[in-house]
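Researcher: Let's do a round of design. I'm pasting the structure tokens now; please hold your answer until I've finished.
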């Protein structure tokens, strides 16, 4: 019976250079802590990132609001 052992390499998730949330300016050092802030940024902006808090409190509610507006 073969067993697979998964080892998480923490260095993979780390950013070479920290980035700031485009919505609240908090510093983010780990890529997995960042999120796409659309629709609170330009649709063609592929560079902007937001933090977990802004994603939960601003981005997701804005997406849900747009979803319900477009259903009408």
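Researcher: That's everything. Go ahead.
Model: Designed sequence:
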């Amino acid at each position: 019976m073969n067993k697979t052992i998964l080892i998480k390499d923490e260095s993979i998730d780390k950013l070479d250079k920290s980035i700031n949330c485009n919505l609240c300016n908090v510093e983010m050092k780990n890529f997995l802590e960042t999120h796409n802030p659309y629709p609170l940024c330009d649709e063609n902006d592929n560079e902007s990132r937001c933090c977990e808090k802004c994603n939960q409190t601003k981005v997701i509610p804005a997406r849900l609001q747009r979803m319900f507006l477009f259903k009408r």
